[in-house]
């Protein structure tokens, strides 16, 4: 089917989202969202949810006449059109594009530093926040009236987009500039589980005292950063939020655009909080294949598992994957029924416990020297206890008990910042 030109698509979107909200009298943070959008029925079926960005009429006039910085990546689309192209076509003055890990167009491999550039389509400077800079400078902020943030997150502590959110909030707070968040669903919003990050394990893959799966949207998380005083000197970032219409945390949500090169299927997105901890082990998670974060394996498991895969160098995904060009044996989770995860509402520890028991060289299972691609297991999971418990043969019940009272306290704290049921 032939797509409409971007400007005609935008006109249609504007017509569909014409229910404006007058929010001038609301207290900070300003939260806008017509909860009736998407709730009416047509032929007995409910209209689908609408992301913040798709409710163009709720924010377009607010942006007009302002100098806007925009924190986006390839997931930032209005309909089928990149938000930058769409807003420029609508007359918004975008001064600077800021890109997170994987870059503005989402093509850089995990962990790769991303260089500054000029967006060839619009001629707007594109500044990397995953290179020499982690947040906009005071000089860059001085050129702006506000920052717009629209990036699809997947709800895991070690997924770095919430770190980018916090860094940009810090720049906004320092410069007394507002952040407009166009909220998006969390595909793992139903899952709140894992150990709370221990202070001494603070790192680039763990900045906040939250569990592995935090169960919040980006806008909810931004409210938590403010509310818990997590910015330096307990600074506050002024927020304006466009809510997702007709959304709740238990709602399944298939991402229209994959959030990063190695989360390239809906299955990988849902498995990610469970599988990423294996990056601190000798096992491959499928990097170097076209099925990352849906398989687990290693060469030493030959004879114990029938399923095999062989990691290769894939440009833009994994150039030097663990066990490159070597056949790995292990688990194929591509058809794993996600209903099991939704029903349990828990991280799957069974795969970690099973594969550690099966691995013949247990002293090498958590060995960080095997590959530069491997992360530090303790930093990934946020605690030193889990590795010790796995090695000692602790039961899942014992492991989960050790996450309390921290996990329960977090769940209670989380409720204060929720925008959705």
TrEMBL record:
<feature type="domain" description="Peptidoglycan beta-N-acetylmuramidase NamZ N-terminal">
    <location>
        <begin position="68"/>
        <end position="266"/>
    </location>
</feature>
<keyword id="KW-0732">Signal</keyword>
<dbReference type="InterPro" id="IPR048503">
    <property type="entry name" value="NamZ_C"/>
</dbReference>
<feature type="signal peptide">
    <location>
        <begin position="1"/>
        <end position="23"/>
    </location>
</feature>
<dbReference type="InterPro" id="IPR048502">
    <property type="entry name" value="NamZ_N"/>
</dbReference>
<dbReference type="Pfam" id="PF20732">
    <property type="entry name" value="NamZ_C"/>
</dbReference>
<dbReference type="GO" id="GO:0033922">
    <property type="term" value="F:peptidoglycan beta-N-acetylmuramidase activity"/>
</dbReference>
<protein>
    <submittedName>
        <fullName>DUF1343 domain-containing protein</fullName>
    </submittedName>
</protein>
<dbReference type="Pfam" id="PF07075">
    <property type="entry name" value="NamZ_N"/>
</dbReference>
<dbReference type="InterPro" id="IPR008302">
    <property type="entry name" value="NamZ"/>
</dbReference>
<feature type="domain" description="Peptidoglycan beta-N-acetylmuramidase NamZ C-terminal">
    <location>
        <begin position="270"/>
        <end position="420"/>
    </location>
</feature>
């Amino acid at each position: 089917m032939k797509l409409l030109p971007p400007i005609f698509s935008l006109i249609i979107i504007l017509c569909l989202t014409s229910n404006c909200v007058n929010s001038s009298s609301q207290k900070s943070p300003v939260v806008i969202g017509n909860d009736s959008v998407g709730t009416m029925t047509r032929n007995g079926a409910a209209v689908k949810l609408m992301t913040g960005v798709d409710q163009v009429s709720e924010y377009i006039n607010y942006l007009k006449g302002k100098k806007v910085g925009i924190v986006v990546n390839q997931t930032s689309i209005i309909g089928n059109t990149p938000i930058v192209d769409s807003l420029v076509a609508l007359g918004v003055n975008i001064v600077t594009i800021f890109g997170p890990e994987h870059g503005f167009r989402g093509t850089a491999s995990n962990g790769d530093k991303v260089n500054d550039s000029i967006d060839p389509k619009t001629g707007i400077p594109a500044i990397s926040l995953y290179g020499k800079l982690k947040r906009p400078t005071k000089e860059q902020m001085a050129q702006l009236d506000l920052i717009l943030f629209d990036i699809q997150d997947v709800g895991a502590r070690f997924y770095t987009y919430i770190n980018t959110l916090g860094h940009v909030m810090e720049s906004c707070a320092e410069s007394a500039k507002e952040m407009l968040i166009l909220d998006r669903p969390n595909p793992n919003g139903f899952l709140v589980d894992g150990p709370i990050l221990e202070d001494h394990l603070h790192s680039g893959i763990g900045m906040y005292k939250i569990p592995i799966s935090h169960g919040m949207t980006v806008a909810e998380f931004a409210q938590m950063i403010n509310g818990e005083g997590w910015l330096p000197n307990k600074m506050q970032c002024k927020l304006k939020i466009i809510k997702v219409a007709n959304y709740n945390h238990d709602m399944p949500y298939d991402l229209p655009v994959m959030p990063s090169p190695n989360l390239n299927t809906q299955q990988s997105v849902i498995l990610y909080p469970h599988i990423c901890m294996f990056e601190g082990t000798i096992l491959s998670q499928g990097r170097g294949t076209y099925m990352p974060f849906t398989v687990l394996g290693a060469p030493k498991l030959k004879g114990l598992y029938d399923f095999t895969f062989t990691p290769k160098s894939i440009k833009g995904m994994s150039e030097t994957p663990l066990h490159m060009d070597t056949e790995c044996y292990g688990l194929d989770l591509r058809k794993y029924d996600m209903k099991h995860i939704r029903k349990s509402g828990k991280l799957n520890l069974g795969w970690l416990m099973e594969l550690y028991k099966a691995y013949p060289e247990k002293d090498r299972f958590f060995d960080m020297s095997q590959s530069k691609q491997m992360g530090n297991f303790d930093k990934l999971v946020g605690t030193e206890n889990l590795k010790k418990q796995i090695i000692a043969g602790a039961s899942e019940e014992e492991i989960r008990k050790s996450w309390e009272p921290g996990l329960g306290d977090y769940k209670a704290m989380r409720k204060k910042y929720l925008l959705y049921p």
